[in-house]
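Fold this sequence, please.
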Amino acid sequence: MTRPLLALLALSLLEGDSSNTHLRYQRAVRVTQPGQSCAVLDPALYTHAAASLADLRLTTKDGAQEIPFVLLRSGSLQTETENARIVNVHQAGKSLLFDLAMPPRPYTDVMLLLNAPNRLAQAVVTTEKSSRSSLGEFTLFDLTAQHLTGDTTLHLQETAAPLLHVTLRPLPESSPITPAMLLGASVPPSREAQTLFTPALRTSSFEQTRHQTIARFTVPAHLPIERVRVVLAAGKTPNFTRSVLITSHVSGESESSGEQIRETIARVRSTRGGTVLSLNQLSLPAILGANLQRPAEVEVAIENANDPPLPLASVVLETRQRQICFDLSAAAPLTLFYGDPALEPPQYDYQQHFRPDPAMRNAVLGPEQANPHYVPREDTRSLTKRHPRMLALGTMLVVCLVAVLTLRSKKLRV
């Protein structure tokens, strides 16, 4: 055999590497520089991949070498919401003064838990007991008397100050703020580390009942849904607070076997005594588990009670952004394979020692393509497991045959 023929045979064996032949789909991965790179996974990939993306395999372009990777879910490396410790609380006329001992990490928002219904207040926040170290002034409000919601969050610029000094001053038409009204303070992750979401499904078609506006979705199997976002139509929208009921169940099964999540959306645009009040709360956490293995039916019902329906542009189901991250010593084209539900998740040392690089590069996934070397796995299940209907039909035939023979036997004896 000549050398060129040997080389051609070796190349063909390399391109048809058996470790990827049972993976139905592939995507090119473009990497521009060596080092740590991450590519964002789009929602369409989930519908053809195995549950929890267990079958993802990353290789060199020719499929000869497997590249270790880690799946990074947006927000998975962030800190959890923590409590701030309230100290040095005292009354000063109508105002309430106190300090917040903060967690030892960067933060932005600080959420005050106040039992101060129907009050408007101005919060002045400093890092020292001096206005020279001001972190800002914020309007806090509670509009429950008007059947609306409120906002008691301090929206700071990112800081790591260990101690905050807060002065709560009631606006002129409001009653004093007392120590008994201050119930706690929590510190969510910094906005720099907060979760990113990717739109998965969207609808602008709604069913209007007497008291509800309903959006319906059929969610493909394996596509994780983790947030619902309501988009209002352009134009003037009245202030509102509406309850939202999110339900899901596996397609083809009873609705009673599903799950329910109840949340609230709200919008406030108002001016009181020259103070502008503003709140836009239109995204709802909604982690749904019904579609992990099979398609699911999801219903988002906005409860209007006796109020007019909201002017909706769309309702969007979103998934947390996920990336596939890896390291390369030299920039080179790669291929991402998937589409084999029989595969177990890969186990790499890289996953145990992964640390995100602040200078990580963006890799880009190409369009989905059929794996030209795909070969279906041999079905090793027994005949009855592969064809359960045949077993049921065979059982029925045997029962019928026994019944016929029994009947004929009785007639012969007569």
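The first helix runs from residue 3 to 15. DSSP finds four helices and 28 strands in the chain.
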